[in-house]
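Box 3.1 A note on notation
Throughout this textbook, protein chains are presented in two layers. The first layer is the amino acid sequence; the second is a token string describing backbone geometry. Keep the layers aligned when reading.
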Amino acid sequence: MKIKTIFALLLSSGVLFGNELKVTADSFDGDEKKGIAIFKGDVKIKRGVDELNASKVTIYTDVKHDPTKMIAEGDVSFFVTTENNSTYVGKAQKTIYLPKIKEYRFYTNVHLRQLNEKKQIDGDKVILNTINGKAVAQGAKKEPVIMIFNIKDKNETK
């Protein structure tokens, strides 16, 4: 039977993830002096309605123990909301979250879908800023970026 490690970061400043970040994983290894926490095996992170799942997640913190960077690796899946209430769901092989600028960087076989606008971006690198909702994408060397829009015909009823 696997033993799950549950780790909750309570952030007084709310800089990264609001008030509470709950991390569940099969194993945890941390070094407070170095400001690093490594979670492995069926990692699930939840903050409010946002979720991120991966095989491994490394969280870096500053001297005040506020997270400065989060790196998720291995079959990453996610549900993210932006400050303007846009919702995104998707998957990638690697995700880096930079809390100070509230930006997600998705890498390798990225599939990002905006639910409320019914848009989809597929690429090898996609950057999503959750403050302004801007997204930037790049394709792989031999693969283009693909963006799919759902365009309503003006004769369609709502």
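Confidence is low (pLDDT under 50) at residues 8-17. The longest strand covers residues 67-81.
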